[in-house]
Design brief:
CATH topology of the largest domain: Rossmann fold
Number of domains: 2
Strand content: 15-25%
CATH superfamily of the largest domain: CoaB-like
Distance between the termini: 28 Å
Bound molecules: flavin mononucleotide
Helix content: 25-40%
Largest sheet: 8 strands, mixed
Structural class: alpha/beta
Length: 401
């Protein structure tokens, strides 16, 4: 059973191809998946919800405002509890709604709140599929990490022959298996991630910090966990909730982060330093709040360079650093890679409008000490996290952890 323990939300939309989804559901269940089916109102015109209910052994939610669903907010908890949302068939309408952020029924609202991988198996007439708006919607969903399976060419429900047929259930199943099981490739590895900014107090009310939101580090921690790794995250102050299932240590200052990293370093197979620590701290912290109107001169001293310290204590670990730059990105990153004796460095141009601090997307170049350099387009940080982990695994090799 290839999908044992995997939770799949199977979304069914209004296409004739919904009859094939009955078989897809059977196969998913046979492979051990825990499937909940959510239908659109249009889908229920094609196939009775009862069919899916019997095969999944669960009620089939359709309506957004159904009081029988209990007290939890259905669209949030359904999406949150899934390892994958699979929409098969996916109508032009649902693809367009997700691409535009429209949430006007239960399934589109689940997609709007989704924080797990989303896969779509489109089904529609060729004219619809070739429509530039549909193509554009598919392309923009791909850019945010949605996977598309098919459609295929063949005979269509309209009687015509052309592209638009939903992929066969076995193909969709195998795609889902690949996507969900590829995520256990960090099993047995311990990943130490630092995230967020650090803060250095000036007085009881003020501090020096930086713009880091922690999103990149949290995304790496979440991705490593999802791929089966044991994750220790040392986080500076952020507004984010740590991913579930990880060991999160909250710190405030660079010194605290340094101490925590050193305390846990020996456990780690991989150390990913995604935090943007405060490089300086005031020489003295005032015990009382500095009064307004006074002219203040801050004397700053360098904080501990955690990356350099790790390098000295480094044994078998793979060490990954980040270089947030505004100019000469690759050159500066290469210098840092070498001077800190890192294995990999993730360079990002924080002056790019869709990359860097506080953004949900990032555009990175991964450079390794063996001469490899890979540039990526703008992607969601969750996707960037997976690409970074792919590089880490490639460099660790089997039995290297
Ligand atoms: C018989 C019939 C077949 C349809 N097949 C498709 C289809 O394969 N793909 C599609 O995008 N729309 C198809 N539609 C149109 C959709 O059902 C319609 O756009 C609907 O609003 C989709 O709603 P939903 O996305 O909420 O399920 C079909 C409509 C009818 C009446």
């Amino acid at each position: 059973m290839k999908l044992s323990g995997k939770r799949i939300l199977l979304g069914v939309t209004g296409s004739i191809a919904a009859y094939k989804t009955v078989y897809l559901l059977r196969r998913l269940v046979e492979e051990g998946a825990d499937v909940i089916v959510v239908m659109t109102v249009a889908a229920a015109k094609f196939i009775s919800p009862l069919t899916f209910q019997v095969l999944s052994k669960k009620p089939v939610p359709i309506e957004m405002f159904d009081l029988n669903q209990g007290s939890e907010i259905t669209h949030i908890y359904l999406g949150r509890n899934a390892d994958m949302i699979l929409i098969a068939p996916a109508t032009a309408n649902m693809i367009g709604k997700m691409a535009s952020g429209i949430c006007d029924d239960l399934l589109s609202t689940i997609l709007g709140a989704a924080n797990c991988p989303v896969m779509m198996a489109p089904a529609m007439d060729s004219e619809m599929y070739e429509n530039p708006v549909v193509r554009r919607n598919i392309s923009s969903l791909r850019q945010i990490g949605v996977d598309f399976i098919g459609p295929q060419s063949g005979s269509l429900a309209s009687g015509a022959t052309g592209i638009g047929r939903m992929s066969e259930p076995e193909e969709i199943l195998s795609f889902a298996v690949d996507k969900l099981t590829a995520h256990n490739d960090m099993e047995g590895k311990v990943i130490l991630v630092t995230a967020g900014p650090t803060r250095e107090s000036i007085d009881p009310a003020r501090y020096i910090s930086n713009m880091s939101s922690g999103k990149m580090g949290y995304a790496i921690a979440g991705a490593a966990r999802k791929r089966g790794g044991k994750v220790i995250m040392i986080s500076g102050p952020t507004a984010l909730t740590p991913p579930s299932g990880i060991d999160c240590i909250h710190v405030t200052t660079t010194e605290e982060m340094y101490t925590s990293v050193m305390n846990r370093l020996a456990e780690a197979d991989v150390v990913i330093m995604a935090a943007a620590v405060s490089d300086f701290r005031p020489v003295e912290k005032s015990d009382t709040k500095i009064k307004k109107g006074e002219s203040v001169t801050l004397n700053l001293v360098k904080t501990t360079d955690i990356l350099s310290e790790i390098q000295r204590k480094k044994g078998r670990q793979l060490i990954v650093g980040f270089a947030a730059e505004t100019e000469d990105l690759i050159e500066n990153a290469r210098v840092k890679l070498k001077s800190k004796h890192l294995d990999l460095i993730v360079a990002n141009d924080i002056s790019h409008p869709e990359a860097g601090f506080e953004k949900d997307t990032n555009m990175v170049t991964v450079i390794d000490k063996w001469g490899g350099i890979t540039g990526y387009p703008v992607m969601p940080k969750s996707e960037v996290a997976d690409r970074i982990l792919d590089h880490v695994l490639k460099r660790m090799g089997p039995g290297n952890g």
